[in-house]
Design goal:
229 residues; Transferase(Phosphotransferase), domain 1; two-stranded antiparallel sheet; 6 strands; globular; transferase; Ser/Thr_Kinases-Pseudokinases; Kinase-like_dom_sf; protein serine/threonine kinase activity; kinase
């Protein structure tokens, strides 16, 4: 499994993806990867600190983070690779290297048939959740776009996905997302253009979601106008 990740990581060419610097193969059964050190942890932890009013070493803006993720997905999708596990826990922050998307262990080249049990259900697209454990079904790059939309809700609200539905069980949330009757929401003060983007990314029908290239184009005019999450 790790060797497959290493092989795929070597294929990826993107300044927005956490780079593989070297591999260490002292144990043939347990190769290790050396990547850039991202000293400020994950976006998930960053947002949690902000919620608790704790100090953070660096500040990032909503658009800054969205820009990196969108461009990372653009580069991956152009190389026929689906990330399959886009979430705030895979977005890493560094005082030196900025923002990078990690988590290539879950990525796969696009081949029409993709397994279900990859990723985290909170960020999964409905079409991925509809796949039975014993089966495979077709899904593609739009699944990454849906997960990106979930991250947008985290950036806008500063909270975990579905925090407004805290009273629902995890299985209930999953069932409703799978059926298309529930999706994570933006905050009441969200900028209209950002709300529209999130709505498009979170469309139930994969064909109605924008591509990564579409998202990058939408973000360009807003690169300098968003406050920190």
């Amino acid at each position: 499994m790790l060797r497959d990740e290493i092989k795929l990581q070597k294929m990826i060419r993107s300044p927005y993806v956490l780079p593989l610097l070297a591999t260490v193969d002292l144990d043939p059964n347990n190769p290790m990867m050396v990547t850039e050190f991202m000293d400020q942890g994950t976006l998930y932890d960053y947002l949690a600190k902000k919620r608790r009013g704790e100090p953070v070493a660096i500040e990032v803006t909503t658009v800054q983070v969205a820009w990196v993720i969108a461009n990372a997905l653009l580069d991956l999708h152009r190389q026929n690779i689906i990330h399959r596990d886009v979430k705030s826990l895979k977005v890493l922050l560094s005082s030196k290297h900025g923002v990078k998307l990690s988590g290539i262990a879950s990525a796969r080249t696009v081949h029409g048939l993709m397994t279900h049990d990859v990723g985290t259900t909170t960020w999964m697209a409905p079409e991925v959740l509809r796949i039975d454990y014993e089966e495979v079904a077709a899904y593609g790059t739009p699944a990454d776009i849906y997960s990106f939309g979930v991250v947008l809700t985290e950036l806008d609200t500063g909270d975990e996905p579905y925090a407004a539905d805290f009273w629902r069980s995890h299985s209930d949330i999953t069932a409703r997302v799978r059926a298309g009757t529930l999706r994570p929401s933006m905050g009441p003060n969200c900028a209209p253009w950002l709300r529209e983007l999130a709505d498009r990314c979170l469309a139930f029908d994969p064909a109605e979601r924008p591509t990564a290239a579409d998202i990058v184009a939408i973000l360009v005019p807003h690169l300098n106008d968003q406050p920190a999450p």
